[in-house]
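does this look right to u?? zinc ion version
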Amino acid sequence: MFFIKRALTWIAIGLVATPVLGQDLLAHQAPVDKKMRAVDSVALQRLFMQEDLEDPAADLYPNWEDRFINAFGDVELPKEYKIDLRDFAMPTTNRIVTSKYGYRPRFRRQHKGLDINANRGDTIRSAFDGKVRIVEYQPGGYGNVVVIRHPNGLETIYGHLSKHLTQKGSIVKAGEPIGLAGNTGFSKGTHLHFETRLLGEYIDPAKLFDFANQDVTGDFYIFKGHGRGTILGKHVADAEDKQTDLAQAEEGEDVSYEEDASNSKAAREARAARNTQFHKVRRGETLSSIAKKHRTTVAKLCRANGLTKRSKLRVGQILKYS
Ligand SMILES: [Zn+2]
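got this back:
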């Protein structure tokens, strides 16, 4: 935001200067071009984040299967995988862990998650941004359960819910309500059964989430296979950071307001760049299918991207449209 603001100051200087000639024009042009690039990369960033949500952790998972919780075929676990925990939300505000992860002699089996105390009807929230893979009722097991796959590679599982508040295929934000706490399935007493997995491999959620302190254990967790891993970076509760972010966002809005009010060529171009949208070409797509999808025409697409109607598209190619 700061960069854009500075670039706009340059544009403003260009506007007040009396007749801009030759050299001057070039000098003033440079920051505008730079700004365009900055805006482009912001929009691209947004596109990639969106794609990450539509097909989360595509580098890790071989498929998107919405009938079975465990369905990854014979894919090998990575030797090491860095899981970004920074943009988390606590699944519940409850702080008391009533049953830990690990072997339970009483049931002679592994407890594959954490049980967190809850009251019936408490809101249960997605731990990260992600896409909902499974929403179902398993009478003898999880009861009402939600499974979400996240761009950071994790899948999170929320069991024994009294009610689902989401659907298969939904894209959810960290902290978005996905269900209400309950006592359905193989459960005695209302609680949240919470699991964290990577490609079907269980990770003790307590290695990632500190329910007592309502925080993550670190900024990253380096998964190193079967029960091993390390925490990287101390997560610092960042109320202050969030305040700063907010202040910056507000500052940004002011800037664009001023800019929008101007009808100079530079302002119009900047506005056009900001409104530019991008499309990443997928397998099987054609100029006309892409044009249709974004409610534009093949001719406009061609013009915006320097293509002809007969140009061959590559999978992964980025096209502008607006
Ligand atoms: Zn449990």
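The chain has a mean pLDDT of 81. idk if thats expected tbh
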